[in-house]
């Protein structure tokens, strides 16, 4: 029998993945260097961060800097920048990975599937035809060929280019 090892997932599956406080707030302020290293782009009020436990390579989240849980709590300016960064993230992901599609979603509240319900965020997950293979359907696992560090290195300059093009 072959074994597939993914030791970085142990924190997640055992429930020990969340440091004290809000992971998005600590990433934004830099108080958790590990979380801050996942930030690939900063706007004025929002930022883009890699998902620590991604569904696919390039799985990003657009997050308001202010600790809010719902769209209803966001200001018009925050909503505008969240959508602008979501659009920019789509462009960056298409450039970096050439996916066949991208899932974009917001889960508000634990019952809706939010893993971090207390801080609003938008997921962007690149998808490819056939990416739900035997590992996902039978093994209930995903194989990600790129480390988070490599993903961050790939995406940061593309966000700089996309931001400059938007001016």
UniProtKB/TrEMBL annotation:
Histidine triad motif, short sequence motif: residues: 119-123
InterPro entries per UniProt: AP-4-A_phosphorylase, FHIT, HIT-like, HIT-like_sf
Enzyme Commission number, as recorded: 2.7.7.53
Active site: 121 (tele-amp-histidine intermediate)
Keywords in alphabetical order: Nucleotide-binding, Nucleotidyltransferase, Transferase
A GO term for molecular function: ATP:ADP adenylyltransferase activity
Binding-site residues, substrate: 51, 123
Pfam family, one: HIT
Residue ranges of domain HIT in the record: 23-134
Protein name: AP-4-A phosphorylase
Taxonomic lineage from the root: Bacteria, Pseudomonadati, Acidobacteriota, Vicinamibacteria, Vicinamibacterales
């Amino acid at each position: 029998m072959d074994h597939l090892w993914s030791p970085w997932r142990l924190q997640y599956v055992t429930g020990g993945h969340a440091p004290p406080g809000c992971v998005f707030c600590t990433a934004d302020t830099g108080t958790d260097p590990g979380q801050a290293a996942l930030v690939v782009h900063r706007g004025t009020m929002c930022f883009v961060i890699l998902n620590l436990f991604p569904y696919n390579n390039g799985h990003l989240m657009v997050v308001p800097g202010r600790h809010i849980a719902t769209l209803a709590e966001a200001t018009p300016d925050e909503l505008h920048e969240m959508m602008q960064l979501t659009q920019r993230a789509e462009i960056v992901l298409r450039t970096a990975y050439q996916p066949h599609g991208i899932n974009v979603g917001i889960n508000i509240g634990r019952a809706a599937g939010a893993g971090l319900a207390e801080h609003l965020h938008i997921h962007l997950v690149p998808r490819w035809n056939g990416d739900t293979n035997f590992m996902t359907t039978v093994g209930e696992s995903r194989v990600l060929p790129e480390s988070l560090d490599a993903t961050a290195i790939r995406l940061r300059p593309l966000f700089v280019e996309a931001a400059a093009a938007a001016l």
